[in-house]
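sanity check this:
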Amino acid sequence: MVRRVVSRDGTRIAVAEAGDPAAPTVVCVHGYPDDRSVWDGVAARLADRFHVVTYDVRGAGESDRPARREGYALDRLAEDLAAVLDEVSPNRPAHLVAHDWGSIQSWHAVTGDLLRGRIASFTSISGPSLDHAGHWFRTRLRRPSGWGPALRQLVHSTYIVFFQIPLVPELGWRSGLGRRVLRRLSGSAAGSPAVADAVHGLELYRANIGARLSRPRPRPAEVPVQVLAPLDDPYVTPALQTDVARWAPRLWVRRLPGGHWIPRERPDVIARCTAELVDFAEGAPESRGLRRARAAGMVDSAVGTTGRRARAAGTELVDSVERASESVALRQARTVEAGRVGAVEGAPERRGRRRVRAVGAGPVDSVEGAPESRGLRRARAARFDGYLVVVTGESRFARAAAAAFARAGAEVRGDGPDVPDVVVDSRGTAREFAARMADRGEGGQLVLHDPAEAARLRREYPGLNVIVTGDGSPERAARRVLRAVARNRHAGV
């Protein structure tokens, strides 16, 4: 049953609910040019355990359509979310999962004062904060190494310029051209948006884009944030979505094979990832998937989503493994982390931590509450904590690879029922693992000896990264594999 909630300015918002109202509330916020039905598959999977709420944002579906452009400003959208929360979860913080413009407006809500204390966690899909995006472009354009990511995002965003033109985009939607272009770019997953929703939703772009990108504000998020970044999104690059550790200190990042409308393509994946963060925010232990996603968030923060620094982080780890000794940065990171854990658990402060704190360097500042330096984040991100690595066979190479990944912090097994994140295959069973990884929908990496089989797997499973071991001694090949997997974490699991 659909009911109407009245927002602060009188706009009526259509709201639907499923699941047990006594369970934790998960509110799903859709984007443009969709309505709440984009969440049907995800909501059906979450409703077994949670109180799931979907609603039509203003201008879409069964909700009212403001007549004036200022009615679509982000502040009005945040007021709509507040009205929904007052109705569906008045006495308990709710969890948000949002897509596209739903994510843009949810970032605005979780980084503002209106809903402070009302949000328990936030899962963002294919929609950055406009203020964060403005800062991101400024940072990238200051140095040549950032021009490439900025240019790629600008190319992906050309449609936004088109949407600013008066009347022409409206004509495109009413003539049917808009739907045809959408289908060509995103396939059937884009659905068949209502013309009225597409036309009225244009005001979201016109009311917010220019002001926010040209004059971005610092907007930190206090809540746990999970970013689910589809790797094949034609509108929002993973770099723009995931490089947000500056604004979200409690960050988890997952890069998912799929396109922009991944809530329709893989509702099972979105529901599982969302449920893991909700469970953790509600007090459950951090899942292995979240531990891996937390490490991925540190990689983005540390390397700034540029390949050169990603390679540097992977090389630093491999060099540490080869020497059986840590670099200064890795050693400092481990010392500070151990000291932090001991302090949390009530143990006496370790001598190493006292020594590091006495120096007054970056790690000390992090422990004492200042932001963690990029070098320290890169050092901590170089490890494989939270990763499950399956190594098959008993060859010298298999033993060397297993030892290398174990030293890097991964959980190493010979097999098992769980879907691994990395498979080093010496028995010719890579195809079986590839099918399991693809079914999970969170990517993965395969390492094998046969170049022909590697080529076939790349064609059949484009969402997976396939690495060929190459020639050389087993120990040297294991080091190359570790380096390649560390580097490619950036584009997959």
User: Anything to note?
Assistant: The longest strand covers residues 12-18. The chain has a mean pLDDT of 85. The chain has two domains: 2-293, 380-489. DSSP finds 22 helices and 13 strands in the chain.
